[in-house]
Amino acid sequence: MKIIQLFKEPVNKSDLMPVIRQGVFMSIVGGLLIGALHLLIIQVFGFSFLWIMLFIFAFTLARRMHAAYHTYHILYAIIAILTVFITFYLLNVVYYVGLLYMVDSLSITSFSYMLNPLIHFQFFNIFTSGFFSIENLLDVIFFLIVNIYVVRYIK
């Protein structure tokens, strides 16, 4: 089936609201929880379990969104991808604001700087000098794998 035909299929209105509700709920709770856990683990142990926590989140998100509808539509996969992006944004905001609060340098300007989404998705910018570093490429690969996993298992 072509992608254009998938968009032309009708959306079941009774399925759309539960999917949106699950996406909003999972992005807020997942972002806050993973961000706080990421800050705790980094501060206590000194290494990151961020991508493992995001894989667990992706599994839970796909399972909950799959249970929220009766007939699949491609719009639900787009909502799931947006949910992953919002979750990643929120977890970074929670992590960096918590980190700045801990070192007692949280101000209005630093807080407003942390709310800028371009800062948190900078690893996608191919024009930065560190794009081809191993750490950045791993971040891009893992982020894409999480999104692909969610799209594949939401069906």
Major sheet details = none
- Work out the helicity level: over 70%
Spatial separation of the terminal alpha carbons = 14 Å
Overall radius of gyration = 17 Å
| Topology order in helix (H) and strand (E) letters | HHHHHHH
- Give the uncertain stretches in residue-range form: none
| Strand fraction | under 5%
Average pLDDT rating: 92
Total helical segments: 7
| Classification by helices and strands | mainly alpha
Q: Say how many strands there are.
A: 0
Compute the number of structural domains. Answer: 1
Shape: globular
Written account of the structure:
It is a single chain. This protein is mainly alpha-helical. It has one domain. It is 77% helix and 0% strand. The protein has helices spanning 3-8, 13-45, 50-68, 74-102, 108-114, 117-120, 134-154. It is globular. The two termini are 14 Å apart.
Question: TL;DR?
Answer:
The protein contains seven helices and no strands.
What keyword list fits this structure?
mainly alpha, 155 residues, 7 helices
Give the helix/strand layout.
Blueprint (H helix, E strand, L loop, with lengths): L2 H6 L4 H33 L4 H19 L5 H29 L5 H7 L2 H4 L13 H21 L1
Helix pairs in contact: 2-3, 2-4, 3-4, 3-7, 4-7
